[in-house]
Write a structure and sequence with these properties.
The protein has 89 residues and is mainly α. Helices cover 66% and strands 0% of the residues. The protein has one domain.
Length: 89
């Protein structure tokens, strides 16, 4: 999971997905849910792991894409606010 930067992002770097991307990710979750609810066999673990890898690959694609397609804007101000709030709590 170290290969996926979105596990360690700051609040101002949250993953934003479009509606079609959201549907794709939810479909992967549903596929895993169906697999886990069905009778287990010697391939069950491999199937779930493959779905997780695909989910992480799509999330990584969407995460990296959003930094190519949107401006940083007020990221410094947001970072300062996040640090101030963290200090308060």
């Amino acid at each position: 999971m170290r290969h996926y930067g979105f596990f360690t992002y700051s609040a101002n770097e949250a993953l934003h997905v479009s509606e079609p991307e959201k549907e794709l990710l939810l479909a992967l979750f549903n596929t895993m849910k169906t697999e886990l609810a069905s009778r287990l066999d010697e391939f069950s673990q491999e199937v779930v792991i493959a779905q997780l890898e695909l989910l992480f690959t799509y999330a990584n694609r969407f995460y990296k894409r959003q930094f190519l397609t949107r401006k940083a804007g007020h990221s410094d101000l947001l970072q300062q606010l996040e640090e101030t709030l963290a200090d308060c709590f």
